[in-house]
Design goal:
Elements (H helix, E strand, L loop, with lengths): L6 E2 H8 L3 H9 L2 E3 L2 E3 L4 E3 L2 E4 L1 H11 L11
């Protein structure tokens, strides 16, 4: 990524189409998946949380791993 800019909770909420409270919950308590709780990495600056775009990408992969066509056993 050319620009190394952190995202706010509101930015992530818009991208994920979720309420900002849900994003904060994912940071603090994690998101429940079939593999257990997965936390969204973030850093706290004052009273605000900031999320690096790469952390969001990793979180998305962890909660929704892409299906691999080569592993389908139909």
């Amino acid at each position: 990524m050319a620009e190394d800019r952190y995202l706010t909770v509101d930015d992530v909420a818009a991208v994920m189409r979720k309420h900002p409270r849900t994003i904060r919950d994912w940071i603090v308590a994690g998101c429940v998946t079939e593999r257990g709780r997965i936390h969204l990495d973030a850093t706290k600056v004052g009273k605000s949380w900031l999320i690096h775009p790469e952390w969001l990408e990793l979180f998305e992969h962890r909660i929704r791993p892409a299906r691999r066509a080569d592993l389908d056993l139909e």
